[in-house]
Amino acid sequence: MSSGTVTFVDEAKVRETVLQVFDELRSRVAALLPDAEIEHIGSTSTPGALTKGALDICVLVEQRDFPQADRILAEHFARNVGSDRTDSLSSFVDDSKVIPVGVQLVVRGGREDFFVRWRDLLRRSPQVLSAYNELKRRWHGRPHDSYRNAKSVFIEGQLELTRDGWDAG
Asked: Which CATH number do you get for residue 106?
């Protein structure tokens, strides 16, 4: 996990740079994994979100393709040693870009396949986005590790509400 404090900026301040890097990496990953679905996730994918300014990408593959996709991505990206690694999730980083990049390799329909659903919830629900931004404001300048824990609890709670039929719109 990261140490230090967490700081946030408005997504609009980094949007152009993020989109340029995403387009470049989407093409690169698509060439490596032509059957994968490649999605821009994280706060920089949501207009109006507060963000740390990093680009997060979700690469979705079928379970049968996961081991090979993991090997291929590991040849081109560094493993994110601060993240969990399971039989349906591998995390990578790319520090060679002008912004930090995280790549989440996920099995489509697997237990960690929530990144796109979370992005879509933030995009369609001003209330959830506002609450998420407020959580970030409370953690601005505070320890990163503790923020990650608070963020995880918040996201899990919001996704559980929508899974139970609560309409966040």
From this structure: 3.30.460.10
